[in-house]
Amino acid sequence: MNHPILNRLVWPLAALLLALWGLLTGAGVHAQTPETRLTVRSGLYHAADQAFPASGPEVSGWAATLTATPRVRFTGDESWLVMELTNRSANADWVFSPHGSLIERVDARLYREGQPPQTFQTGYQAEHAYMLHYGVDITVPPGERAWLVARLSSPFYASQPEFSVPSRADYRRTVSFENFLILMALGALVTLSFYNLFIYAGTHNRSFLFYAAYMLTYCAGWAFTFHLPADVFGLRNLRLHYLWFFLLPVLNTLFYLHFLQLESRVPLLARLSRWVVWLALALLPTSFFLLAYAHVLATAVISLWLVLALVSGVVSWRQGFAPARFFVLGLLALLIPAAVILPGNVGLSPDVPFNSELFTLLGGTLDGLLLAFALADMIRLLSRQNQASIVQLQRALHLARTDNLTGLHNRYAFEQVFNAEDSARLLIVMDLDGLKGVNDQQGHTSGDELLRTFSQHLRDLEREGVTAYRLGGDEFALLAPLEAEAELTGRLQDIERAMQTNHPSSGVSFGVAHTSAAPKVSTFDEADQRMYHHKQAKKRNVRASLLT
C-alpha cells in the first residue's frame, strides 16, 4: 500500500509506539535506586469528623480509632491516609505523590520528631508545585522516622488512587517524561483534528468533519483529566470533566456511521448505533446534576459504544471495505488499555505499575492515528474508484461521439463542435456517390466496405484543426481552417480518382461554406446546396460524355 498521506502518518505512529514502549518498560514510573529508597507503611481509613492528630507519636493511637477500608468508593468518599515513613537512605528530599485518579482535595500534615507539623494541600482544587501532577515536596532527613496523615475528599474517583513517596530527583524525572508524553499526545490530537478539518473544507466529506470533532473532544476530555485547564487557566470545574466523555460515543458513532456507510451495509447495526448516540446524549446532563455517578454511567456508555463500533468495523471489513481494518485496529488501541487497567481499578487484578491514565491517553492517540490511516485509505480507494469511473465515462463519451462502422466522429459530435464554434471555419459537406448502386448490385457488405474505404481516406486528411465526420448514410463533413480550402478540395478530387480505381461507379460530391458570418443552420444549408449542385453538375457531365 503506497499512499502519500499514509506515508506521512508513519513517523507519528512510530513515535507514539516508542512512547508506549518507554512507558511500559518503566521510564515513566517512580523508579528508585537503593540509595534513594524510603520505607513506607500505609493504611486507608474511613473519615468522619475526626481532627488531625496533634503530634507524630499520637498518630498510631489515633489511627487505631479509625475504621480501615481497602479502597475508596468510586461514587465519592472522604478518607484518611496514614503513612509511616522510615528513611534508611542518605537522601532527605522527597515528594508525597497522590496519583492514579482525580482527587478534589488532599489536606495533609507531615509529622517529624521534635518538629512542628508541616501542613500542605494538593489535589484538583489546589495549586500544583509540579505541572499536571499532585506531588508535594517534603523533607525526611536520613535516619529519621516521620508520619504523613492526609484527608482525601472527592465527589467521585475515576479509579483507585495510589500514593507513593519517591525521591525528589526521581519524581522530577518522572514528571518531565510524563508531561512530555501528555503534551505530545494532546498536540498530536489537535494537529490531526485541524488537518482533517482542512481536508473536509476541500472535500465536504462528513467523515473528516466527524473525525476532527471526535479528536478535539478526546483531546479536551484528557486535557481536563490531566488538569491542564486547571494548571494553565485556573479552570477548576469538575462538572466539565465528563461532558467530553459522554460526547465521545456520539461523535465517533456519527463518524463510523458515515465512514463505514453502515446504513447501506448493515442497517441493524446502524439503528443500534443511533440508539447509543441518543443514550449518550440523554445521560450527558448527569455530568452536571449527578456528578458522583457520571463516571460510572460514562464508562457504561463508552463500553457499549466500543463493543458496537468494533462489531460494525469487523462486519464492514469482512464485507470487503478495506479501510475498515484501520478502524478496527484503532478500536483495539482503545480496548487494550481498558482490558489492562479496568480490572485493577475494581480490584480484580493488581494495579498496573505505570501511569494508567497516560497509558489510556496514548492508546487513544494511537486510535486517532489509525483512524487517520483509515481516512487516508478511504481517499485512496475513492481515488481509484474515481479514476475507474473517469475511464469508463471517457470510453462511453468516445462511443457516443464515434460512428461504429467507420470509426469517424458521428453526427452528435459534429453538431457539438459545429454549434459551439465561434471563429471562422471551413465547412465541407460531402456525399459518397454510387453507394446505393453498390448496395443494390453487390450487397450491403460491399457497400460497408466502400464506406470504410472512403472514411479511411478522410481520416488521412485529419490533423490539428481538421476533423472528419460521418453524418449518416452516405453523408460526410469536414471542419477545417479557412486557409485549408484549396488543399482539401484538391485532396477530395484525388480521393475520388483513387476510389474509382476499384469502384468505377463511386464518386465524391462536395460543397463548401464558411461559418464566419451567417447563422450555423444557413451555413450548413449553403454547403449542402453547393454539394447538391456539384452532384448535379457531375451527372450532367456524365450524360454529355455519353452523348458525344
Task: Describe the protein in words.
With about 550 residues, this protein is α+β, with helices and mostly antiparallel strands. It has helices at about 5-25, 60-65, 170-205, 205-225, 230-235, 240-260, 260-265, 265-285, 285-290, 290-320, 325-345, 355-400, 410-420, 435-440, 445-460, 485-500, 520-545; strands at about 40-45, 75-85, 95-100, 105-110, 120, 135-140, 145-155, 160-165, 425-435, 465-470, 475-480, 505-515. Helix 11 (about 325-345) runs antiparallel to helix 12 (about 355-400) and helix 15 runs antiparallel to helix 16 (about 485-500). The chain starts with a helix and ends with a helix.
What features would you highlight for this structure?
57% helix; rod-shaped; disordered C terminus; disordered N terminus; 548 residues; 12 strands; alpha+beta; five-stranded antiparallel beta sheet; four-stranded antiparallel beta sheet; single chain; 17 helices
Q: Tell me the strand order in the biggest sheet.
A: 1-2-7-4-5
Q: Biggest sheet, open or closed, and with what strands and sense?
A: 5 strands, antiparallel
Radius of gyration: 42 Å
Mean pLDDT across residues:
85
Q: How many strand elements? A: 12
**Could you tell me how far the N terminus lies from the C terminus, measured between alpha carbons in angstroms?**
81 Å
What's the number of helices?
Answer: 17
The amount of helix comes to 55-70%
In terms of quaternary structure, the protein is single chain
- The SSE string, one letter per element, is HEHEEEEEEEHHHHHHHHHHHEHHEEHEH
Label the structural class.
alpha+beta
- Which ranges are low-confidence, i.e. pLDDT below 50, for 5 or more consecutive residues? 1-14, 23-35, 544-548
Shape: rod-shaped
- Percent strand: 15-25%
